[in-house]
Amino acid sequence: MNLSLAAAIGLLLLWGLLVFGAHDGNGPVHVLYAAAVVLFARRIIVGAPKFLS
């Protein structure tokens, strides 16, 4: 698991906690969701890191 995937999962969890847990559905909270989607897309397009030994 690389750093961008871990950050995407963390942002998605934080977004879910704020939207569904704290009932804060304002616009700036959804920037977390957008950033998570961008990081997931980056992970899909770039792929997993390849370690050479």
Low-confidence stretches: none
- Identify the overall geometry: elongated
Radius of gyration: 13 Å
The succession of helices and strands, N to C, reads HH
Distance between the termini: 17 Å
Task: Report helical residue fraction.
Answer: 55-70%
Characterize the main sheet.
none
| Overall pLDDT | 85
Describe this structure as you would to a colleague.
- By secondary structure, this protein is mainly alpha-helical.
- Helix content is 68%, strand content 0%.
- Helix 1 (3-21) runs antiparallel to helix 2.
Which terms would index this structure?
0% strand, mainly alpha, single chain, 2 helices
List the helices and strands and how they pair.
Layout: H1 3-21, H2 30-46
Helix pairs in contact: 1-2
Q: Can I get a quick summary?
A:
The protein is an all-alpha fold. It is built from two helices and no strands.
